What we know:
The structure is a homotetramer.
Chain A: E1 8-12, H1 18-23, H2 27-31, E2 33-37, H3 40-48, E3 54-60, H4 66-75, E4 81-89, E5 93-96, E6 107-110, H5 112-117, H6 119-125, E7 130-133, H7 137-145, E8 151-154, H8 156-161, E9 165-169, E10 178-185, E11 197-205, H9 210-221, E12 227-234, E13 242-249, H10 255-267, E14 270-278, H11 281-284, H12 290-309
Amino acid sequence: MPGVPPTRFIYLGPEGTFSEQALLTIPAAAKGTRTPARSVPEALEAVRSADADAALVPVENSIGGQVGVTLDELANGSPLVITREVVIPVEFVLAARGPVGLDSIRSVAAHPQAAAQCRHWLRGHVPDATVVEVLSNAAAAISVSAGEHDAAICVPVGAGRVGLTVLADKIADHPDAVTRFALVARPGPPPPPTGDDVTSLAVYISHDRVGALLAVLMEFAVRGVNLTRIESYPTGERLGRYVFFLDCSGHVAEARVGEALQGLRRICADVRFIGSYPRAQAHYGPASSAVAAADADYADSAAWLARIRAGELA
Amino acid sequence: MPGVPPTRFIYLGPEGTFSEQALLTIPAAAKGTRTPARSVPEALEAVRSADADAALVPVENSIGGQVGVTLDELANGSPLVITREVVIPVEFVLAARGPVGLDSIRSVAAHPQAAAQCRHWLRGHVPDATVVEVLSNAAAAISVSAGEHDAAICVPVGAGRVGLTVLADKIADHPDAVTRFALVARPGPPPPPTGDDVTSLAVYISHDRVGALLAVLMEFAVRGVNLTRIESYPTGERLGRYVFFLDCSGHVAEARVGEALQGLRRICADVRFIGSYPRAQAHYGPASSAVAAADADYADSAAWLARIRAGELA
Amino acid sequence: MPGVPPTRFIYLGPEGTFSEQALLTIPAAAKGTRTPARSVPEALEAVRSADADAALVPVENSIGGQVGVTLDELANGSPLVITREVVIPVEFVLAARGPVGLDSIRSVAAHPQAAAQCRHWLRGHVPDATVVEVLSNAAAAISVSAGEHDAAICVPVGAGRVGLTVLADKIADHPDAVTRFALVARPGPPPPPTGDDVTSLAVYISHDRVGALLAVLMEFAVRGVNLTRIESYPTGERLGRYVFFLDCSGHVAEARVGEALQGLRRICADVRFIGSYPRAQAHYGPASSAVAAADADYADSAAWLARIRAGELA
Amino acid sequence: MPGVPPTRFIYLGPEGTFSEQALLTIPAAAKGTRTPARSVPEALEAVRSADADAALVPVENSIGGQVGVTLDELANGSPLVITREVVIPVEFVLAARGPVGLDSIRSVAAHPQAAAQCRHWLRGHVPDATVVEVLSNAAAAISVSAGEHDAAICVPVGAGRVGLTVLADKIADHPDAVTRFALVARPGPPPPPTGDDVTSLAVYISHDRVGALLAVLMEFAVRGVNLTRIESYPTGERLGRYVFFLDCSGHVAEARVGEALQGLRRICADVRFIGSYPRAQAHYGPASSAVAAADADYADSAAWLARIRAGELA
């Protein structure tokens, strides 16, 4: 129900992963119920069927590869909207049952992609340990807790959940990597503009021609709206229908973004609005003052046009 | 005074030229007073000072070369707007005091540019006649009427005014050439949209860079507004300020044109609105149904945006 | 060594996955050695270090999520190039140790994403079976072969490898889904143009502004080069350096593509060439005749320019 | 004959006008023969028929209105090229038979447009004098020399030619106005690049759509070529064929300009090359160092492409 804050949250599980860690950064979720889902489709289905009020799912990063799944789910089926984004650092720790030395580690349980992202660290610090692949970061911690392996690559929340000791933190090879999550809900009025928002769209164009994509970009460029992300996807239909996932700066309530959306609506085969929500500032740096300037520019030009239409030229 | 039909007309004289002929095609002018001016600046000055209600001046064609003067006058000084355009064929006749044979013509009085535009015809039909240059097409007719020369190149209205006999008509080398005139008035509400209108603008950009001009054109292109004319002028200020005279399809009261104008206002150093007025259809062919379609598109996209902003996604 | 056909192939393992199936469609690989790698980075590292001649890795699809990893690896580290693409249908089968009825299936081993992609089928055909997640499609087949579970979701080659019986084929919910793989090698002369090629690039722009991306697209648009894929990635560096992965139609040996690449080189912070290679036609439909036309156009315009420069205007 | 310097010059007459004054700034013309023509078509026809080697005609300014005629002549008929531009200030003087006081002037002979350009000065300095219109600036001087009028508005060279005394100089209302002339010859190799050149083109597009014009501008923009002038002209053919006269920075021998021309050739209905020639620097300010930079950029990108095509990636 629009206006009622969500209390029942679902997230891409299992427990003890980045998704849970990200969900806990949202105050309402910290107080509400938090249910893990086995997959992104399952999480979003729970929201569509009103079994949950909101789902936290990853939208951008290589961790787990759910990005494609999430976008695909948002672009198809009954509409859902992003109401909030959470960006958290990709932070891996090496954890064991107790404070042992690294040279005593013989086996390391890890999700294959976590192992891949820490491979330089592993090579440098536990070169003789065998990496044993498991199904998730949480499963790695659990397997160590159960005594199956000497150490686990896991996320901080996952190590703590099963009482492991962190032997080394920040062991990912790319220290600045992040994962971006979206809190997804059923359609309703977007959260109010904050002055530093993101608007997400799925845009369908009829041809794979660069000219069609150029026309899409021009709709943004002429309104001074920046794109912060663009991804093309084949739609699965064989003959040349493409979908582009676009994130742009600004809120649908702003004149410049609203005008750009109307432009897309006119030239594209289809446009799906996926939400306007506050930018997660910690990651992207401080908000610029450009938005206020843009709003003033739009107000000025609207007033000027009104004078022209009324025959009141200065 | 806005809303009061003009009764006092001024036009680029002298009497008996294309300008007078064009003015007579306007019913209100046929009934009102019609005063010739010696120059375009003089005609427009009379409107600015309220000595006349409207001025008819040429805006496009080589005849007389006043184009540059007219644009310059509209772009500078206190604002004026075009309320109507008149397009008439450039039609020259060879006229004499009576119905004589072409082989008896020894001298032809002509304005230099009229002579230039009929030179192939003259070479073919009166190869032995001497062309004597005079100050205007009207002066040519008058000089023949006064017995100074055997024949005149003049416009039909000019021949009739002094009682000359037309020996040959449509003698211009380019049979489809036209002159475009503008009826210029003090600012007021534009005439209502007709579904096939033209909007004229003077647009100043700060740099001579193609990128700046490209940005201007994109403002039109993304709204589906066609440009039917573009001309750059150095502004006279030495360091790189350019003015572009643009005619586009559509009326300032239409959403697509209004939005494009607002866009120009935001990106250009200055924009001067020079009028929205009905296209002279005789010359350009029938109105397209594209305008109605464009309006419907704009209404649809505005309704769609309103639903998004209200959280009412289908 | 350039010119010497590759004989030692590595692919994203384990054995019995789509990657192996895709590799077997390449005749040279069917005859050469085929080694599975545990991750995309490991596979590409083997090529970089010359332990393998070529690596087959997924570049586009949600299966397994390696897409991001692959792009990241190609964009960084010492250069590698794609020499061939392989597109195969995402085809899942349900397999068991023998020809049992579906109603006898109590547990289904599956990689989480395979389960997600077949969930409608599972719900419709084995609604009471428990899905047990395993680490890969191959592991699912192996676990069934070992008697741990009743049935497995796996790929045809994986079922056959361990002697399972296929109970149902084409069980994926999206019957037209495909995975696109790239055969990656150390730099060398690209394969010759075929008239229907793809060129892959990683393009870095200095700002996240839509204007910069628009400029990139214009480089393609003015040469009539179509983009068939575009994806933006944050580079990991915090302050606004973006990388775009672009696939365009055409071969670097063609004039239009070469000119577009030179244009990108001039305006972008960096451009990495990732290969020109034949399009996998089975998926994309027949080659168009546009390429030949484009080549003729370029030859014509070059000849025309040469005449102008020589002062030989027609 | 290409390579042979022109010795027989023709110019828009009569003698004693701006055109003659402009022609005299060209050393070869100062030594060669100089013949006045009665019109721009006549001047250009003399070059086409090889009766003259080169013609000096106005291409940009309101003085005399010949602009349209010149462009029309260059765009049609057998090809001609501009080999040099001359820019001179629009400088009017008031001249009489002797050093009389302004208050004794009762009649002023003037070409109508010269009178228009000096009207503020006339109003301020000889408010009671009658302006008598004559056919040219030269005719004004001659009429005063013959005793028909008290004073003439004319150009300095025209006053001197008939021995008049200059009573006041720089009397034009716009002190910075200039006229731009072109020296036109039969096609031949263009003069060598100087590092600060202009290239003139006539470009035909099939539709009046802004999209077509946008495509033309993109051809320049992507190569970093600035447009310094653009003018659209209806072609006279009724149904929507437009010609654009474009001046861009740079020389056809430069890579960036050559590439842009080839691009226009591919997308336009027709392109006519009208010359590459040194910019008249006095008017436009010093040459920028951008050209050298552009050349280096093009050389760098060409070398880079060659390495890619050869498989020699760094």
